[in-house]
Amino acid sequence: MSTGNEKIAIIGAGLGGAAAGALLQHAGFNVQIFEQAPSFSRLGAGIHMGPNVLKIFQRIGMDQKLIDISSTPAYWFSRDGLTGDYLSRIPLEGYGATYCTVHRGDLSALQMDTMTPGTVQFNKRLTRLEDNGSDVYLEFQDGTSARATIVIGADGINSRVRETLLGAEKPHYSGWVGHRAMISAEKLKKFDLTFEDCVKWWGPDRHMMVYYTTSRRDEYYYVTGVPHPAWEFDGAFVQSSREEMSEAFAGYHPVIQALIEATDDVTKWPLFNRNPLPLWSQGRMVLLGDACHPMKPHMAQGAAMAIEDAAMLARCLEETGSQDYATAFRLYEASRRDRATQVQTVSNANTFLQTQEDPSWVYGYDVYAEPILDKSVA
Ligand code: FAD
């Protein structure tokens, strides 16, 4: 339970940080989120939110709002990228909640609405933090500072909080990039082809995942995984082109050719990775999501793991109270490490749902039905 005196600082208002903010506020904790971006804009990218996440959104009254704006595919199809043959037809219903595909910007906007206004402070890039035993001192790039009882590092793969706990270390470039493009469904009407709700096209060494991002099905989105020898650019992404896409997917199925032809704007994102971390928390600081266990995105579960982390961490803090954060952090890691590592491993291998398999271990998972594990007692 909250003592009312604690101040929980979350660094980063990404999908994991925002979920932690809402869930901790819901449990009565005093929370402040510090986000480096000046604001969030509706950048062109989609995201899957599986039933494992929707069960968490139920807690903060967000599930139906998300379903209302999302596409809710009944199946995940895997198809041979060259012949179009079906490799698997995975039902997405029957796991205890709805499966959604949605625009990331729309998802983020919904998440912001789940928190008390003013919870997120934008333009606050954390540059330094110091746990001095009695609290944590936070310093931001704009010259301001803050103090917190505990700090949750939800600041993504290049986390400053992770760096403070474990030292500076660049993530590994995986050797793969993801191209991302949002296509107006209007542009697809001229093709005498079927554009399925959620389909992954598999080639021998590359793939293209495609789905709608709105309930109106007026935006169709693709994200690829393509080998790319070195990442020689600065920044999170660079511009790609229709020509580059045509080259990367030469000889692939007519649906893929149609998608490339209908592409106005496509970007290219390097896919980075880290090995499992030796620790998830130290003193008053704890990590979640990509700050803790980044992965290649091929299972579409990276953000889902960040949100599951947030839910388990909130549960553990509720169980122990914020004063006993050390126990809460230990229970949290014990309860989350195996699952996050398993998903990280399968996602990196890029095999999930390629053949007919049962995805219940991923989608059927309900973080609230899981026991809080205490490995030191077991
Ligand atoms: P992030 O989303 O990275 O958020 C971190 C936040 O912290 C950002 O807002 C950032 O601005 C802020 N920040 C960083 N440093 C600081 C600082 N020093 N001070 C203050 N703020 C800071 N996952 C899915 O579940 N489903 C999918 O379909 C899916 N598709 C993907 C496709 C691609 C191509 C990629 C690359 C990833 C995909 N993922 C998907 C993974 C998912 O995007 C990440 O796992 C997820 O965004 C992690 O959330 P997070 O909150 O931990 O970190």
Automatic annotation (TrEMBL):
Q: Does the keyword Oxidoreductase apply?
A: yes
Q: Which UniProt keywords apply?
A: Monooxygenase, Oxidoreductase
Entries under InterPro entries matching the protein: FAD-bd, FAD-dep_Monooxygenase_BioMet, FAD/NAD-bd_sf
Domain FAD-binding: start-end pairs? 7-344
Q: Which domain of life is it from?
A: Bacteria
Q: Which Pfam families match?
A: FAD_binding_3
Entries under SUPFAM superfamilies matching the protein: FAD-linked reductases, C-terminal domain (SSF54373), FAD/NAD(P)-binding domain (SSF51905)
Keyword Oxidoreductase (UniProt): yes
Tell me what this protein is called.
6-hydroxynicotinate 3-monooxygenase
Q: Which organism is it from?
A: Rhizobium beringeri
User: Where is the organism placed in the taxonomic lineage, from the top?
Assistant: Bacteria, Pseudomonadati, Pseudomonadota, Alphaproteobacteria, Hyphomicrobiales
